[in-house]
Each structure stands twice: as C-alpha cells, then as structure tokens.
Amino acid sequence: MFFGKQGSGVKQQMKNTGQRTRAKHGGSSKLGSSLKDNLDKLKTDLHNSSDLEIRPIGSQLAPEVPMTAVYIGELTDETTLNEYILRPLMSTILRTEARNEKLVHIILERVVEVGAAYITTDIDECIQRLLDGYCLLLVQGAACGLLIHISNMEGRQVSEPTAETVLRGPQQSFNENIGTNINLVRQIIRSPSLHIDSLQVGSETRTQVALLYLDDVAEPEIVNTIRSRIEALQISSVLESGYIESLIQDRIYTPFPTMKNTERPDAIAGGILEGQIAIMVDGSPFVLLAPVTLFQLFHTPEDYYNRFDIASFLRLIRFTAFFISMTLPALYIAVTTFHQEMLPTTLLITLAAQREGIPFPGLVEALLMELTFEVLREAGVRMPRAIGPAISIVGALVLGQAAVEAGIVSAGMVMVVSFTAICNFVIPQLNIAISARLIRFTFMLLAGVFGFIGIVSGILTVLIHLAGLESFGMPYMSPIAPFDWSKMKDNFIRAPMKYLLKQKAGNVINRRSKQE
Amino acid sequence: MKKRLLTLLCSLVMMLPLAGCWNRVEMNEIGIVTATALDWDNGKWVVSYQLVIPQAISSQSGGSSRGDAPVNVFSTEGTSMRKAIGDASREMSRKLYFAHNQIIVVSEAAAKKGISTILEIYMRNTEARETVSMFIAKGKARTLIEQLLPIEKIPGTAIKQLVKNEANSNSLYPDMTIYRILQDLLGPGQSTGIPQLMIAGSRQALNSLDSLKTTSTAAKIKFGDLAVLSGDKLKGWLSQEEAAGVMWLSNQIKRVTIPFNCSGNSEAPKSSSVIVAKAGAERKPELLPDGRIKMYLHVKAEGTLLEYTCADNLEDPKSLKQTEERIAEEIKSEMMKSWKAISRLETDIVGFGALINRTYPQQWKKLKQDWNTSFAAIEPEIDVHFKLVRIGFSNQNFKSIQKKARS
After folding, report:
1. What's the N-to-C CA distance of chain B in angstroms?
2. Contact assignment for B129 to A349 by CB distance below 8 Å
3. pLDDT confidence of residue A24
4. Domain named Spore germination protein N-terminal: which ranges (chain B) (predicted)?
5. In the structure, what pLDDT confidence band is assigned to residue A502 with cuts at 50, 70 and 90?
6. In this complex, is the C-beta atom of B259 within 8 Å of any C-beta atom belonging to chain A?
7. Of the residues A149, A175, A190, which one is the last residue of a structural domain?
C-alpha cells in the first residue's frame, strides 16, 4: 500500500545508456605530438560540434611553432580568454628555445595568467574539461595539452529561499552552481575539519557531486557508506539531487524519506555541525542531508533562532499537524458512519442535519473532496502564475461553497478537508508532507470499511514500518526507538540553547577522544 | 520481494469487498432517539420514542424558521419491550438509534409492573447506554416526552440537563441513571428512589411550537415527588418535603439551600436561608445484643449564609453559634421527616443495608431475609454539626442596621 514503484524503471534505463556511452569512449586515450592529429581526434570525439572553437595562435615565444586554443564558445568567458591567455601569448616579448613539452611548461609557468591551469596528456580528460568550460592549448610537437579554466557557466544569483522561508534567520538559499553552494557553506563553517569530497556521477552528464562533513564529528562508517553507494552508481545522467536520493536510500518501498533536502545553507551547516553528511549535486539548489530521523524532518532552522519555548510549541504543533493531516478525514469518516455514539448529542445532530439530503456515503464524499483538493493543489503548482487568481476563485467558490449549497457535500466535510490540507502545509519538509497525503487515502479507505478498527490497524502498520526503517544505519525512529533520553532535549521540544550547545560540544569532544 | 508485495496487495484489496463496509450506517439513515417513554397498557408494553429532526434544529438549514417541530414522537407496542422496538421499523423509514438516548420515562403503571425488563435490555445491549436518566411519570409517560421546553431545542437533552443541574446545585433529587439504579437494585438494599417527572401548571400541553410563542408558558416540565422502588416495582411515593432528607440520609448532598427561622418554632415562617456547600455524613450501624439496630449518623456540613432575617448580631460568637445550631436542627428535622416516610414504606433507599453488610457481614446474612421489616425498625441516632463558614458582607440583617441608623 505504501510502496510506490517509482524509481526502479528509471534506474534500469540509466544502466543501459551508461553501458552505451562507456563503449563509445573505449578508444585510444593519449594526445599525440601532431597538432593536426590531435585536433582531428578532438573534433571526432566531440562530433564536430558547431560551438567547438579552434583558434590558431602565433606566439612571440616561439614564432615558428603553431599553437591552437580549443574551447567551447558557449561555455567560456571571452574576456578571460582574450585578456589572460591570448594577449600574453601573442604579445609576450619572451623568447625561448624550448620546444615540445618543455614549451608547454614554459607557457604554463610564465605566460598564462590564469590560476586554474594544468597539463595533461589524457585526451578523455581534455574532452571532459572542454565540456566543463576549460580552454585547451595545444602546441605542435608536444604530446600534451594545457588546460586552462575559463569557464563561464550561466546561473542564478544567490537569492532568497522560496521553498523554505523563515521569518528570522539568514535569507539566502543555494543555487544551481555547486561552487557557489560550497562557498555558502564554507562561509558559515570556517573550520579546517570541514571536509569536502568531490565525486562525479553520470556517464553523460558527468555531474559533480560533493560530500560535505566535519571530519571529527561525522561517523566515518556513514561517510564511507554514502561515498561507496554514490561511487557504485551506474547511471548516465543526474539532473537533480532527487536522482541521488532515490538511488542511494536504504529502502525504496517506503513513503517516508530517509534523507532531508533543503535549500538553506544554515540548515545544511547545522546538520553538518551535528555530524550529518551533506550531499551536494551540481545543478540543484536542493542539498541532501543524511542520516536523518523521522523527527528531524519536522525541525526547521528557525527552531534554533527563536526562543526555546516558542520553538518547542511550534514543534509540537507541527507533530500534531502531521498526525491530523494523516488521520483527520479517516476519523471523520469512521465517526460519522460507524461510531455516531462517540459524538456529543448536539454535535451529532448538527452533523446529521448537514448530511440530510447528501446523496453520497461518507467515504465517497470524503474521497471526492480530497481528490478535488489534490487536483487543485497540483494545478496550483503546475499552472502558469498568471492564471492563479482564476483557479483560486473557481476552487474556493465553485468547488467549496457551491458544492455545499448544492447539497453535494456537507459543510462539515469541507471543513475537515480544508483543515487537513492546511495542517499538511505546516510540515516543513515537502517530502514527508507528501507521504502524509498518500497515507491519508489508505487510512480513509480503511476507515470507510472497518471504522476505528481500520484506522488503528493502519496506524499500527505505519508504526511497525517506521520502526523497521533505517537511514544509513541509523534507526529512523530514534531517539524514541531505541530510546535515548539525552536526545529528547532536541526532539519533540527544543530545550534552551544552554543545554543544547553543551551537548553539541560534547559530541565533538567524544569523537575526538575516540580517534586518539 | 515483488511477488510477496503483490500477494499482500491482492489480499488487502480482496479484504475490502469481503468486509462489505461491515456495519456502516450513514448519518442520514438513522433516527436519533433522545428520549424514550414506557407505558403499560392493556397487558402490552407501549414504547414511545422522541425522534430528533436534525434539519429543524440546525441553524444552518434554517429549519426552525419554517416552523417544523424539532422532534417527532411515535409509539409502538408489543408483549416484550424489544419486540415493540423491533416493530418500529414498520412505521419509521429510519433505523432507530438509541446511543444518544438521554432519558427514559416510565409510567406509574409500568413501574408497578416492574422495571426489570428495561434494566435487562440495558445490561444486555451495547447500543444502549447506562448513563440514561430514568424518571417515573404519574400519568401516561408518553405525554411527557411530547412536551417542548422553552429555550432548549431538544427536549430529551434538556431534561437530562435539568436533572444534572438539580443534582449538582440543589441536591434534592438524584440523577438516577440506569447504572445507579442497577447498583441500588442489585445492592444489599435492593431498592431505590427515582424522581417523578410531571407537567405542572395548566393541563394545556406544550406539544406544539405555537405554545412557545408567548413569553410565559402555561405548563412546565418539572420534578415532583420521589418514587420509591423496591425489588423492581414501584412501592410508593415520597412528597417533596419527605424526599429532602433522603439525600442527607444517603450521604449524597452536594449543594442544597436550607431555609430556617430564628426561633425554632415550627409554625414561624422560615425566612432565612443558608446554602450548604460541603456536607458529609459518617454513618455507622450498631447491632445491639437485644436484636435492635441503631444507626448513628454524624453529619458535618458547612455553608454560606444567603439571607438572614433574625435580629441578633452575628459579630457575636454566641449568636453565630446559636444560628449554626438552628440550622443543624433544621437539617436534623428534615432527616427525621424523611426517615419516618421511608420506614413507613419499608424500603431502604438510603443504603443502610449496605452499611450493615459491610460492618456485620455475618449477621447480615440473617438480617437480609426480612430486611424490609428490620429496616423499618432501625433506630436512627442523628447528630448534625453545622458550621457557618461565611456570613457574607454584613453582620446584621438590614432591618437591624436601619434601626441602628435611626437611633
């Protein structure tokens, strides 16, 4: 019931394409000493792409030696190329007798005015770097090339977070550039022990994936698990961190996310400081955080910026809202169709009066309204912004008010559905909010068939499932199961900062002494 | 894994139609009964139901403006109660739903015949609740559930509120719910007292909405006497004055207003009153060697002075003491009056039997053979201690102060 089949098909497809691309790149892999051969090889490998620029250079350095700059025009920054590579090369007054490889070394050491540059002999690497926005400088007679970083990747500026807003706290979010994202985290954690592991995933996209963790706080086993799972991925493309999430998570068939994703640098920094591991994927502003417990998915960074009493209250509200958004329509169905005796008499009569003349049974009525709402919600996300007001009028007036007035659904049901929907928006993590929505439908069916017995057995099933989940070796339900009193300070409630900071510092010290 | 999942899913899906929505009842398929009446007529049980018409009550559908009556009363009859209820399906489109039944009114004739069949039904069925309050009516029980009450929309619920309010704020009549009646009738005393529900005022009934259109209603539903049941049959009635002391004797007083006069002369009007806020009785039986039974009742009560017409000044501890003694006497005389009445009826509705059972379990075995006669022969020793904890803002009554101001 709770298990979607999403993901497995995608994985299959990726495997196939992965094999194909590897076969293609199987040929020779070293640069030769002939400039023309090298250029031909590059052209073939890049399928004569029209944006591959080949610029011959005559340098004062060694006037008779032909040189060529190769780059992909759309990926590179013209100004850097002109100012710091071409101009120094062409107008240098330096002359040298060195030729071939030595000449390349001299160009690297004395001419090119760009920081990130190195020499390689591997043609595959050259192609990859060209696609990363490097400029490749080839010299006649040298069996190597000089790769110079002049990439200019288009992207957004760092902007305010859109999915996770806070009233108090830093107002910046990650963007699609992994460099910027690492930069944002580094700005917060200026510690030498902040470790960054770079990996590359996807045979076609060659997406850069970075693991960020504090060397002396994060559990090495978990770091190794995550790293080895990412390294073992055989896929052709990674377009978003969701790919990585669904491929490395512990269990596929569960509605509950075992990783947290956030676009807030402060949330990531907070997680890293507590020993979690951040997984950044180039091209996605959503950074993954693992391992997480179920309860951590209800925490927001703002909990730590507010006063502890307010933060604790809001946390409790969130947990309650989660429970309500899973069970309220089911409870309503069960009470109105099976257990009328549970309601106070006057409430029962009020509800009964609303239901007079409603043509559908309670379950059908509830499913109808819930589905309507889900459709409205999906429409709200997909539709172009300009149509927004029209949809909200149709949704609110036509479907809500008119449905009640026409006697299709009862007013009580509309209230229940609306409150359930609002409760769902309280949950800070979208992916756990969605799982509550899925489970809600199951519960509604159970309630419609078995009444409270159905709901109770549903809740038990979910609890059993949750107790069996793990997030990279950490029990999903901790610190409730297994119970850990010391962690309760920052679970359902948030204790005053005084006690929390002590605990956090304690963690670091413990791990350090363990290593020694 | 996949196969297992598929089997699991299949079996779950197959379960849904199997259960067939089990015992689902939609709310617009049930008729909510808020009051039941039981009459005994021509050797048959006549059961009447007060059915709520939700639309007429809910403000949303604007039913009351259409002038629909909020309830509908109808009766069915049969040789057994449950058969009569079963027959209701022949004349009612909806399934009768008793879980929200608030009160049950039993006619005198039916009570004389015996209420054991009602109790039997309540003990056996899950839908019926033991929190239903029972009343006895001197005439036909059905007329009582046909009445409308001013202010309230659902008469059944309103009467339930009425008795709750009475039990908490005046303690003259107990709220006799089915489970209390069961406790009493199955306890050592095997008897109980149930309030009478009556229509006071003119005989013009309150059974149409038009009768509520005036600012005062000609008739009113209220509590009358206290019916005394022994075994499961009605044995007699206690008048309101006689019933007053029963709550004291059975130690059930919560709050009660007691009127008294200054002189202690029983002829003088009782123009002062005190409200008892806390009361408790220590009841101790003693079996004397000669076979007589003594019942010691130490009542301790405290209360607040509500009105005071006596001339003396309460600043004086002596007169305060005197007043307290007066009130204690008043309580005692109420208790004696009730005692006389219940010993006349020879029914132990105050639970003395249970006390004796607890203190003298051995002797009780013999006593219970003929408990009703032995009960009537009990000699109660009542002593009451009353404490005035608050006398209010003034020490003297208004007239004395006025006199003092003049002089």
Report:
1. 104
2. no
3. 44
4. 23-196
5. low
6. no
7. A149
Q: Does B50 touch chain A (CB under 8 A)?
A: no
Range of A426's domain?
305-475
Q: Do A345 and B154 touch (CB under 8 A)?
A: yes
| Shared-domain flag, residues A160 and A107 | no
Write the residue in B15, B34, B61 that is nearest to A345 by C-beta. Answer: B34
Claim to verify: residue A312 and residue A457 sit in the same structural domain: yes
Q: Is B27 near chain A, with CB under 8 Å?
A: yes
Cβ neighbours around B59 below 10 Å, total: 11
Task: Give pLDDT tens digits for B260-317.
Answer: 888 777 777 888 889 998 888 899 999 888 888 899 999 999 999 888 888 888 888 8
Inter-axis angle of helices A35-45 and A123-132, to 10 degrees? 60
Instruction: Report yes or no on A35 lying in a domain.
Output: yes
Is the Cβ pair B154, A346 closer than 8 Å? yes
The predicted complex's ipTM stands at 0.80
- Based on the fold, state whether residues A233 and A339 are members of the same structural domain: no
Number of domains chain A contains: 3
Reduce the secondary structure of A59-119 to three states and give it as a string. Answer: CCCCCCCCEEEEEEHHHECHHHHHHHHHHHHHHCCCCCCCCHHHHHHHHHHHHCCCCCEEE
How many A×B Cβ pairs under 8 Å?
Answer: 91
Nearest chain A residue to B6, by CA: A1
Domain identity same for A352 and A377:
yes
How far does B69 lie from chain A, in Å, by closest CA?
14
A218 and A72: one domain?
Answer: no
A450 with B99: Cβ contact below 8 A: no
What digits encode the pLDDT tens for the residues A368-408?
889 988 988 888 888 888 888 887 788 777 777 788 888 88
> Mean pLDDT, to the nearest integer, of A261-283?
92
My answer on whether A39 and A169 are in the same domain is no
The residues pairing with B97 across neighbouring beta strands, listed in sequence order, are B32
Classify the phi-psi angles of B171: left when phi > 0, otherwise alpha if psi is within -120 to 50, otherwise beta.
Answer: left
- Same domain assignment for residues A396 and A448: yes
User: Which of B1, B11, B14, B24 is most worth mutating to test chain A (most A CB atoms within 10 A of its CB)?
Assistant: B24
Q: What is the DSSP string of B312-333?
A: S-TTSHHHHHHHHHHHHHHHHH
Distance CA A227, CA A248 (A): 10
Which residue among A1, A350, A362 places its CB closest to the CB of B12?
A1
Q: What is the pTM assigned to this prediction? A: 0.81
In sequence order, what are the residues at sequence separation of 6 or more whose Cβ sits closer than 8 angstroms to the Cβ of residue B335? B245, B248, B249, B297, B299, B380, B382, B384
Q: Do A448 and B24 touch (CB under 8 A)?
A: yes
- Which residues of chain B does CATH 3.30.300.210 include? 239-407
| Stretches in chain B below the pLDDT threshold 70 | 16-22, 58-67, 202-205
- Enumerate the residues of chain B whose CB falls inside 8 A of the CB of residue A411: 60
The helix (H) or strand (E) run that includes residue B290 is none
A500 within some domain: no
Task: Please tell me the distance in Å from B9's CA to the nearest CA on chain A.
Answer: 7
Return all residues near A515 (Cβ < 8 A) that are at least 6 apart.
Answer: A216
**Is B272 near chain A, with CB under 8 Å?**
no
CA distance A68 to A41: 14
CB atoms B52 and A349 under 8 Å: yes
- Please provide residue A50's backbone torsions phi and psi, each rounded to the nearest 5 degrees: -70, -20
Residue A21 has pLDDT above 50, yes or no: no
Note whether A350 contacts B60, CB cutoff 8 Å. Answer: yes
Name the 3-class secondary structure at B298: strand
* Same domain membership, residue A394 and residue A375: yes
For B7, the token pair is 């089997």
In a domain, A74, yes or no: yes
Q: Which CATH architecture has domain B239-407?
A: 2-Layer Sandwich (3.30)
Residue contact A356–B34, C-beta within 8 A:
no
Residue A395: predicted pLDDT: 77
